């Protein structure tokens, strides 16, 4: 199968691959690499590949991606990382970007930046709150629960360890800007409700955050964890049409249970205040952003962005199993699997959110292949509420 061939080629030639060709979690650099996955201290890894894959949220994906890492002694996990992508999906989405990552580029500081253009002929909108669109029957292509969105944007972030490369404390500052064009269908939930943000427009955000990172490896951790507090502020002074702010709290923790099992846990709470446009209801802040509730970055098995609101909380629990490893072009490739349980819910002002125990679960299992910084994941997940299942093929651990 072409997809399988592409995955093996990616593992053989690039430490990370589409969609970002950089660490998928945006995780912090580590002070040392793990014994199981030694770092590459010099040389070059590069790849140019067609994109051929499938995702239940987006449909079939096609296009191209190119990515490269340049390694050098004293630069962890690499000296320069760059990626460029042109991506189209069978459901009318486009996602094109250019991304750069330079650990220790400016003294001890890490510079990250991204330019991108996104277009969605059918971007999901089910209304606000934890029990929205109760008559939804699972057909994601209904015009009633979609709108057309265009959103060019860019962001830049400067991250560093003010107390030394071996200290777990990190801080960062950054700025992002995006212009969101909104085109609702005539008989849609969006056209009927006309929430804040219905007119679209620019959103500029100032971002800042702190992390405490004790992971042994940023791309495929076995032990340790990372805690993060992130802030984002938008207003006229930042080039935004809307005045709002957000706070994100995140905890990621990893425990090694014997030589082959790892228990991984992530908890995320995101709170938005002020005049929040509806297209921000589904987004979280922080170094590693997520969408939801619902989709491959928050609660797998539930339709993408199925539940949205000013307050989002979700939990992801994974039991990872390293079944066996083999050598490929001088570096070990680890093959294994995962079983997981995801759980999430939202709260939104002036709408019914259901009882306190109304959380939305997803359960599933998957396969993993990892080589140095590259991790390929294939997941099957099911919503225990609706009984509907979904497939995800992606690169990098979920967290």
From TrEMBL:
Pfam families, sorted: Omp85
UniProt biased composition (Low complexity): 22-35
Keyword RNA-binding: no
Residue ranges of every copy of the Bacterial surface antigen (D15) domain listed in the record: 129-398
Region of interest: Disordered: 16-39
Signal peptide: 1-23
Domain of life, per lineage: Bacteria
Keyword field: Membrane, Signal
Keyword Membrane: yes
Subcellular location: Membrane
Gene3D superfamilies listed in its UniProt record: membrane protein fhac: a member of the omp85/tpsb transporter family
Record-linked NCBIfam families: Omp85_fam (NF047779)
The name this protein goes by in its record: BamA/TamA family outer membrane protein
Annotated source species: Archangium minus
UniProt lineage: Bacteria, Pseudomonadati, Myxococcota, Myxococcia, Myxococcales
């Amino acid at each position: 199968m072409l997809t399988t061939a592409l995955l093996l080629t990616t593992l053989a030639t690039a430490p990370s691959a589409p969609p970002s060709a950089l660490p998928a979690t945006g995780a912090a650099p580590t002070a040392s690499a793990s014994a199981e996955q030694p770092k590459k201290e010099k040389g070059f890894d590069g790849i140019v590949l067609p994109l051929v894959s499938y995702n239940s949220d987006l449909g079939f994906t096609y296009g191209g991606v190119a990515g490269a890492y340049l390694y050098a002694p004293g630069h962890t996990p690499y000296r320069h990382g760059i990626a460029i992508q042109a991506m189209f999906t069978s459901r009318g989405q486009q996602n094109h970007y250019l991304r750069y990552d330079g650990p220790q580029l400016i003294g001890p500081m890490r510079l990250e930046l991204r330019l991108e253009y996104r277009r969605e002929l059918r971007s999901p909108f089910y209304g606000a709150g934890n029990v929205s669109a109760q008559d939804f029957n699972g057909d994601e292509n209904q015009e009633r629960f979609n709108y057309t969105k265009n959103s060019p944007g860019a962001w830049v972030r400067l991250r560093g360890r003010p107390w030394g490369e071996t200290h777990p404390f990190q801080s960062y500052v950054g700025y992002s800007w995006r212009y969101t064009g909104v085109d609702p269908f005539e008989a849609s939930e969006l056209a009927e409700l006309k929430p804040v943000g219905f007119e679209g427009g620019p959103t500029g955000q100032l971002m800042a955050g702190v992390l405490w990172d004790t992971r042994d490896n940023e791309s495929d951790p076995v032990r340790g964890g990372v805690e993060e507090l992130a802030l984002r502020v938008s207003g006229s002074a930042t080039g935004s049409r809307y005045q709002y702010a957000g706070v994100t709290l995140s905890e990621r923790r990893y425990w090694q249970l014997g030589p082959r099992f790892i228990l991984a846990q992530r908890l995320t709470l995101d709170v938005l205040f002020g005049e929040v446009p509806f297209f921000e209801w589904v987004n979280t802040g922080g170094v590693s952003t997520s969408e939801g509730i619902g989709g491959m970055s928050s609660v797998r098995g539930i339709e993408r962005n199925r539940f949205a609101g000013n307050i989002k909380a979700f939990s992801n629990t994974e039991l990872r199993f390293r079944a066996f490893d083999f050598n490929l072009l001088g570096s070990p490739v680890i093959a294994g699997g995962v079983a997981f349980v995801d759980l999430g819910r939202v709260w939104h002002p002036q709408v019914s959110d259901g009882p306190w125990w109304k959380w939305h679960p997803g359960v599933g299992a998957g396969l993993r292949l990892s080589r140095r910084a590259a991790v390929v994941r294939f997941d099957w997940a099911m919503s225990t509420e609706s009984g509907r299942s979904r497939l995800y093929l992606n690169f990098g651990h979920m967290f």
